[in-house]
Amino acid sequence: MSDDQALTGPGKQTRRTLLTGVGAVGAAVVLAACGSDDSGDGAAPTSGGPAVPSTGDAGGGNRQDAQSLATTADIPVGGGKVLASQGVVITQPTAGQFKGFSPICTHQNCPVTNVDGGTINCTCHGSKFSIEDGSVKAGPATRPLPPKDIKVTGDQISLA
Predict the structure, then answer these.
(1) What is the per-residue pLDDT across 48-85, written as a single tens digit (0 to 9) for each?
(2) How far apart (Å, rounded) are the C-alpha atoms in residues 133 and 46?
(3) pLDDT of the residue at 116
C-alpha cells in the first residue's frame, strides 16, 4: 500500500480520499464567495460602481440601429477607422461626409487593417481601396469593398 493509500482516521479512509474531501470543501468555499448576495429587494448596489438605472427599450427594439459605433470626432477627415469587431470601416473623405465599407478585402477575404494615406489597406497582399467609394486603388484585389449603410445622428455614427 503506498503512502497516499494508507488508512487514516477513525473511518479508515485513505489519505487520497481525505485530501479529495478537503479540496472539495475548499472549492465550495471559493464558489460561495463568488455568489451573489442580492437580497432581491431592488435596493441599489452599495459597492462595485454606480447603480445603473433601469431605463431603456423594454419592448426589444432594433438595438443594432441604436448602437453607436463611433463619434464623428473619432473619424479623421481624409482618413477613417477599421471597426472589425463591428463589421465596418468608417471613413470621412471630406469634412462631414461619412462612408461605411465592409472590413473584408475582396482579394482573399483577409480583414483590412488600417486607413492611411487616403486608402483602406489590406496588409495580407497589399490591396488598397478608396476611402471615398471603396474602389480598388492598388491590387491584387480587382473588386471594390462593398458599401455598408451607416447613419449619423448628431455626433454618433451607427449602422443604418
Answers:
(1) 444 443 333 433 444 444 588 899 999 999 999 999 88
(2) 51
(3) 93
Beta strands in 21-159 (DSSP E): 68-71, 79-83, 88-94, 97-101, 114-116, 119-121, 128-130, 136-138, 150-153, 156-159
Q: Edge to edge, what strands does the sheet with 136-138 contain?
A: 114-116, 119-121, 128-130, 136-138
d(CA 42, CA 22): 37
Q: Which of 12-16, 37-41, 83-87, 143-147 has the lowest mean pLDDT?
A: 37-41
| Residue (of 42, 68, 39, 37) closest to 53 by Cα position | 42
Q: Is-contact 105 121, C-beta < 8 A?
A: no
